[in-house]
Amino acid sequence: MTKDLNYYIGIDLGGTKIKGALLDDKCNIIYSHIIDTQAELGKEKIISNVIEVINFLINKSSFNKTNIKYIGIAIAGIVDSNNGTIVFADNLKINNYNISKEIEEKFNVKVKIINDANASVLAEYYYGEGLGFKNIVMLTIGTGIGGGIILNENLFLGNGSAGAEIGHMVIFYNGIKCACGRRGCFEKYASTTAIKEMTKRFMQKHSESKMWEIGSIENITSKLPFDYKDIDDTANMIFNEYIDYLACGLVNIANIFRPEVIILGGGITNQGDKLIKALQNKIDNNVIAHNNTPKVKLVIAKFSEMSGVIGAICNIIKR
Ligand SMILES: [Zn+2]
Asked: Which of 42, 175, 225, 265 could be disulfide-bonded to 238 (CB atoms 3.0-4.6 Å)?
């Protein structure tokens, strides 16, 4: 490492993990460090954990601290990037808190924050599966569903940066209650949490299911129905129902934005081709005017684990 280069620290502050990395000015990760968020211990602990990750990354570097030009933080929640405030972060239980000021004062390095799903779509747009496309929608499927939207080569934020909440698009009127206050939101049917809930429901109805090999309902993972779908009817039913829900949301997105590409990120993408093929087929056959208009391509994200970290730095050096 030469001394006159610029380096960046990217942080992804999520509900379960804090991921951090030192990056160069091409967004290459030099090394990384991941710890538990410990969100249940409250705001002070969360912030001290963020500081711990940043300290680790700085102390590991062989160069002077002044080579670090910026700290970028991707946050699971609605943020005001202009003043550095976390406006509303439900799973961190942090509202109206100026995280940038606190971190800036601690390290004497400038800080810029961004929503984590917006960071992820930037990472894919500049360095991943979105490269070369003008209109991109990215969905990060985890405990909830995060959305990031690039329209005409610009990140769409909405008023107060509160837009792109694709997970809270209703796909089932009067359906399952959501933490946002409405019923039937997309993420209540298509997140990994939703798969687990659905699997639980189906298993309780089907005592003959081979999935009972796991012993107890407590051992259900979001992978389970995927692992059993070729040898178990119940698992196959869950798979098909899940695909229908996810496809319903994807076709809505395709009809509204008509992006060249929809990128899927998050743990669910480990299911790979099985998942993409089934979904692509439904998009191709259900998007409006599908016989007369360009296709909407569905792909799996290039950056899974570190997309928020990379995107937090793209947000600084590319925009
Ligand atoms: Zn909702």
From this structure: 225
Supply the pLDDT for residue 4: 63
Tokens linked to 311: 């995107």
The alpha carbon of 167 and the centre of ligand 1 are apart by a number of angstroms equal to 7
What pLDDT sits at residue 204?
97
Strands, E assignment, 152-273:
154-155, 261-265
Token pair listed for 177: 């209650």
Q: How many A from CA of 181 to the centre of ligand 1? A: 6
For the record, the structure tokens of 201 come out as 């429901």
Tell me the pLDDT tens digit for each residue of 24-62: 999 999 999 999 999 999 999 999 999 999 999 999 988
C-alpha to C-alpha distance for 37 and 23, rounded to whole angstroms: 21
User: What is the pLDDT confidence band of residue 170, given thresholds at 50, 70 and 90?
Assistant: very high
Work out the end-to-end distance of the chain between its first and last CA atoms, rounded to an integer number of angstroms: 26
Distance 170 CA to ligand 1 centre (A): 7
Whole-number Å distance, alpha carbon 158 to ligand 1 midpoint, is 17
Contact of 282 with 247, CB cutoff 8 Å: yes
- Spacing, Cα 141 to ligand 1 middle (Å): 14
Ligand 1 centroid to residue 36 C-alpha, Å: 26
Alpha-carbon gap, residue 140 to 263, rounded angstroms: 8
Q: For 95-143, what is each residue's pLDDT tens digit? A: 999 999 999 999 999 999 999 999 999 999 999 999 999 999 999 998 8
Measured CA distances, 149 to 72, 109, 134, 157, 296 (Å): 19, 29, 10, 8, 14
Domains of the chain: residue spans and CATH: 7-121 (3.30.420.40), 131-300 (3.30.420.40)
- Separation of 77 CA from ligand 1 center, angstroms? 13
